[in-house]
Design brief:
The chain is of the alpha/beta class and 490 residues long. It has three domains: 94 residues; 170 residues, Rossmann fold (3-Layer(aba) Sandwich); 201 residues, 3-Layer(aba) Sandwich (Rossmann fold), CATH 3.40.50. The chain is 29% helix and 24% strand. It contains 15 helices and 23 strands. Strands 12-13-11-14-15-10-16 form a seven-stranded parallel sheet, with helices on both faces. The protein has a seven-stranded parallel sheet with strand order 19-20-18-21-22-17-23, sandwiched between helices. A hairpin with a 5-residue loop joins strand 4 and strand 5.
């Protein structure tokens, strides 16, 4: 028996369901995992939670309801259209779809670099998917060439106003510099971020998430967001609402697996996946190099007396002298290779720096005053403060191969092009799927003479919580088909 007719209307960035179907509610609800306010902080700003994990869950409805003439009508973001209509069809609820959006613009392929596209397996298909879609997520392995694909989209739509966004300033500058290397695009491209602002009047604007309000968002036809999984964070998702009237596409090597459970919010902003090119596909096509995981056992640490995550990390990872000394010894085993040691915090960077005084360091979100107070004065290092300009010089040195040994926070975990990087040491100890995809992805770039990337990771056997995290990272590596050496370290 047919249910009463439901009309699904889409336009201006929204989906309207009339009359509303109550059973859609749970399908469009996010149960976000969020950090609680710490109970106290020490003199250095370190957070402490008394006997708690420091996390809670908050329910967020991704829809709104209103009553019109006695009928309840629901509104949801346009990206959830496929989720809504798919559920209605699977549950036998008769519905019709009314599309009030403008027709898709005709693509112009005359300037697209098809010769280069032909050497990059899957990219021509991805370009075609964008051309025929209203929105969606392009999921492809790190090193696949998403920046190149974004440049071809800009060429495919020579008359559209385009904003390219990403969360990190280093990634913004990398994309901007790549576009400026193209003879046709360079005169049409501007950038807006804290270190460089050419203004919003260019046809193509590359912007950080924080600067999106400075772009000509009301006149934008197409929004392209690199590493779109980051925009599910509450601080960024509000920025995407500025672009409600335009087509939106996300690009990511890890569109799912957020630690705050907010994956559905990425779908709400950018739509469902329209193209998927796995790491195994990329290796088989020669787009990236294979990754080999070298696992080391860590048997000593001092985290057993702590219950909250920040303290476990501090005493089990950041200040663990046995673990940090092992990291330094491993780094010195590769004197002829480029080595990147990636940490979660600057505190950890500085503890490792004590064992590797010859290494450069890179970090963000630390004032000069704090650096001098907490690290210079306490003898961690004699190195001067690293400002934004120096971070940019280090990034370029990594890209050119001039910089050989670097300890960094997460500023280089996404969107950078380190073709010379052969060894990456994961000192961070994090476990969720996104960092376990993005961080090793720095190794994937192809380069003459580079047959593989070596990912060094640790099995922290001295603490059951850290040991569980180690196993969760290894599960992601196995899922991606990476070879794991030193299995005896398990």
């Amino acid at each position: 028996m047919r249910d009463s007719a439901t009309t699904v209307t889409v336009g201006n960035g929204l989906v309207m369901v009339a009359p509303w179907v109550d059973r859609l509610g749970p399908l469009l609800t996010l149960n976000r995992r969020v950090r609680e306010t710490p109970d106290e902080e020490d003199a250095n700003g370190n957070s402490y939670y008394k006997g708690r994990s420091g996390c809670t869950h908050v329910t967020e409805k991704l829809y709104q309801l209103e009553e019109v003439n006695g009928a309840v009508i629901g509104y949801a973001p346009e990206g959830l259209l496929s989720r809504i209509t798919g559920w209605l069809s699977r549950n036998g609820i008769y519905h019709s779809v009314k599309d009030n959006r403008d027709p898709l613009p005709m693509p112009d392929f005359s300037r697209v670099d098809f010769d280069d596209l032909g050497t990059r397996k899957g990219q021509e298909e991805a370009l075609e998917k964008v051309a025929v879609s209203r929105c969606g997520v392009v999921s492809a392995a790190t090193g696949y060439g998403k920046t190149f694909l974004i440049a071809q989209i800009c060429k495919m739509y020579p008359d559209l106003r385009i904003v390219i966004a990403t969360a990190r300033k280093t990634v913004v500058m990398s994309i901007y510099e790549r576009l400026m290397e193209d003879d046709w695009l360079k005169c049409q491209t501007g950038v807006i971020c804290s270190s460089k602002d050419t203004g919003p009047d260019f046809r193509i604007t590359v912007s950080t998430a924080a600067s999106l309000a400075k772009t000509s968002y009301e006149a934008t036809d197409l929004l392209l967001v690199d590493e779109c999984h980051n925009f599910a964070a509450q601080t960024y998702s509000e920025k995407i609402a500025l672009f409600a009237g335009c087509r939106r596409f996300g690009f990511s090597a890890s569109p799912s697996g957020r630690s705050d459970n907010a994956d559905i919010l990425s779908e709400a902003m950018f739509g469902p996946s329209i193209f998927d090119f796995s790491y195994e596909d990329a290796v088989d096509s020669g787009s990236v190099v294979p990754i080999e995981v070298h696992l080391y056992a860590v048997n000593h640490g001092d985290s057993s007396g702590y219950t909250n995550q920040a303290s476990v990390n501090r005493h089990g990872i950041w200040r663990n002298s046995s673990r940090n000394h092992l990291i330094a010894r491993i780094a010195r085993q590769y004197p002829d290779d480029q080595v990147l040691i990636m940490c979660e915090t600057l505190e950890h960077v500085m503890h490792i720096k004590r064992y590797l005084p010859e290494a450069k360091v890179a970090y963000a979100s630390c004032s000069k005053e704090r650096y001098e107070r907490e690290y210079l004065s306490k003898g961690f290092t004699d190195d001067p403060y690293v400002d934004k300009a120096e971070v940019d010089r280090i990034r370029k040195g990594l890209e050119s191969g001039e910089v050989k040994l670097i300890i960094s926070t997460m500023i280089f975990r996404e969107g950078v092009n380190f073709r010379n990087l052969r060894v990456l040491i994961r000192a961070d100890g994090m476990s969720c799927e996104i960092p376990s995809t993005q961080i090793p992805g720095r190794l994937s770039r192809t380069q003459e003479g580079k047959d593989k990337g070596i990912l060094v990771d640790f099995n922290d056997l001295f603490d059951r919580r850290l040991r569980r995290r180690s196993r969760e990272r290894l599960a992601v590596y196995r899922k991606k088909g990476w070879v794991i050496k030193n299995e005896q370290a398990l």
